[in-house]
Amino acid sequence: MAKLFFALPAEALAPDLVAWRDQLPWPGQPVPAANLHLTLAFLGEADQLTTTRLMAAVERQHCPPLTIALNETGWFGRAKAAWVGPTEWPNELTVLARALRRHGEKLGLGNGEQGYRPHVTLSRKAGEAPEALPAPDLVLQADSFCLYQSVSTPQGVSYEPIACWPLRARIKETNSEELTP
Ligand code: 2AM
C-alpha cells in the first residue's frame, strides 16, 4: 500500500524558500528542499487498483495555471508544522483541491477533513509559531500538479511523484455553427 497525496510541486521555488527560511531563526526541523510542496489533498493508504482508478478519474480534471503569493507565516500547533502560505489565493486553487479530495473520497480515501488551507510546510516538530518572524514575499507558479507517494527511508521520508498532470484551462469547444460562413 502506498501513502498518497496530491500536491503542487515547489521545485523551482525551493532554493528561494530554503534561503529565506535558513537566514531566519525558523523553529523546528527544516523540511529538505526536495520535499517542499503545497498539498492539495491528503489521501492516505491506497492499493494499486485504487491508485489506478484515481489516476483515471483525475485525467479529466481541469484547472488553469496558478500563481500563489506566499506572503504569510503560520503554524499548525497539533501537527507542529510551521509554514508559509498565501493571505489570499485564487478560487481555482480551492476548487482544484476540493475536486481532488472528492475524487479520493469516491474511492474511500482521505481523512474526512473538509477545510482547505493552502500552505508549504517549511519545518516539522516546531514547538512554536514563526509569528514573530517577517512575512515572506515569494510566489509559487504552478503549471502542473502531481500525485505523490510518501516513502519512508532510513534517511527520512521522501515524496516520489507517481504521475503529474498539466494545469491548463479548459479549451472552449468550438461551436460548429461558428465555423459556418
Ligand atoms: P503538509 O506538510 O503540507 O501539511 C505527505 O504526508 C503530506 O500530506 C504531508 O506533507 C502533509 O502535508 C500531508 N499530510 C500528512 N498526513 C496528513 C493528515 N493526516 N491529514 C492531512 N494532511 C496530511
Short key terms for the protein model shown above:
181 residues, alpha+beta, four-stranded antiparallel beta sheet, 4 helices, globular, binds adenosine-2'-monophosphate
Characterization of the model:
By secondary structure, this protein is of the alpha+beta class. The chain has helices at residues 14-22, 48-58, 91-106, 176-179; strands at 2-9, 29-30, 37-46, 66-70, 72-76, 81-85, 120-124, 138-142, 144-153, 156-166. Strands 3-1-9-10 form a 4-stranded antiparallel sheet, covered by helices on one side. A 4-stranded antiparallel sheet has the order 2-7-6-5. A two-stranded antiparallel ribbon has the order 4-8. Strand 9 (144-153) and strand 10 (156-166) form a beta hairpin. The chain is globular. The N and C termini lie far apart (57 Å). Bound molecules: adenosine-2'-monophosphate. Adenosine-2'-monophosphate binds at residues 5, 39, 42, 81, 111, 119, 121, 150.
Q: What is the overall silhouette?
A: globular
**Proportion of beta-strand residues:** 35-45%
The counted number of beta strands is 10
Structural class: alpha+beta
- Would you list the SSEs in sequence order as H and E? EHEEHEEEHEEEEH
Helix proportion range: 10-25%
Average pLDDT confidence is 94
Distance between the termini: 57 Å
Task: Name the ligand types.
Answer: adenosine-2'-monophosphate
Contiguous uncertain segments of 5+ residues? none
Largest sheet: 4 strands, antiparallel
* Spatial sequence of strands, sheet with the most strands: 3-1-9-10
How large, in whole angstroms, is the Cα Rg?
A: 18 Å
Task: Report the total helices.
Answer: 4
